[in-house]
Structure formats: C-alpha cells, structure tokens
Amino acid sequence: MSRQTIHTSHAPQAIGPYSQAVRAGDTVYLSGQIPLDPTTMQLVTGDIDAEIRQVFENLKAVAEASGGTLANAVKVNVFLTDLANFARVNEIMATYCTQPYPARAAVGVAQLPRGARVEIECVLYLG
C-alpha cells in the first residue's frame, strides 16, 4: 500500500512534527484542525461559530487537497473545551457534511493548542 503526505497552502501549516494529512491507499487521515487562519496563522476572532466554521474550512481545504471532499468523511472526532458548544458544532457540521453522516465522537478536554476552543480531525475514504 502506498503512503502519501498531503499538503495545501489553503489550510494552516503544521505547528508541530506532523502532516496536514496522510493518505494510505484509499483512506486519508486528516490531522486535527484548530481555528487558525491559514494566511496569518493566528486564531480567528469572534464567537464560537466563527471558530467552528474556520475549523471546517481548514478540514475542507485539506480534504480537497487529498482529492476528496468532506462528503468522503467516514469518522470525525471533535474536541471541545466547553461541551456547551456541542449543539453549535452539530448545526455547523450539518452545513459541511451531508447524509449519510460520518461516525463521530465528541470529547470534552481541558485545553487545546494555542488556546483554541475546538479541534476537529477526520478520516476520509476515497475508494
């Protein structure tokens, strides 16, 4: 099976020793995205909705760079510093992912990199 790293300038550059995504065969593993603006590499400002949308825009850019879309998502993991924002993630995710929806987990965490309130990672299947 081939292994290929995915990179796009339309999503934030990695802030550590990892790739934006790795494709192994027909499966693409997207690294967790926080609400960084890919141009400035700063967290977006505004309410939680702005942060969640930026995360999905970043994931969308990486998915497209891999040759897929978020419609190819089979598993999504959501990390929130405040689970009260769970409903906001649901509403915004429904504008980026269509039925049948991917499998998903949502986990409350104490902290995320750079003080973000949300991080999302996902797995795509392109077969």
Briefly say what this structure is:
The chain has 127 residues and is of the alpha+beta class. It is 23% helix and 29% strand.
Question: What fraction of the residues are assigned to beta strands by DSSP?
Answer: 25-35%
CATH architecture: 2-Layer Sandwich
The main β sheet shows up as:
6 strands, mixed
Tell me the CATH topology: 60s Ribosomal Protein L30, Chain: A
- CATH homologous superfamily assignment: RutC-like
Gross morphology is globular
**Count of helices?**
2
Question: How would you describe this protein?
Answer:
- Helix 1 (48-65) packs parallel to helix 2 (86-96).
- With 127 residues, the chain is α+β, with helices and mostly antiparallel strands.
- Strands 1-2-3-6-4-5 form a six-stranded mixed beta sheet, covered by helices on one side.
- The chain has a single domain, classed as 60s Ribosomal Protein L30, Chain: A, CATH 3.30.1330.40.
- The protein is built from two helices and six strands.
- It is globular and about 40 Å long.
- The chain has helices at residues 48-65, 86-96; strands spanning 3-6, 21-24, 27-33, 73-80, 103-108, 118-125.
What characteristics describe this protein?
single chain, 127 residues, alpha+beta, 60s Ribosomal Protein L30, Chain: A, six-stranded mixed sheet, 6 strands, 23% helix, 29% strand, globular
Question: What is the element layout, followed by pairings?
Answer:
Elements: E1 3-6, E2 21-24, E3 27-33, H1 48-65, E4 73-80, H2 86-96, E5 103-108, E6 118-125
Parallel strand pairs: 4-5
Antiparallel strand pairs: 1-2, 2-3, 3-6, 4-6
Helix pairs in contact: 1-2
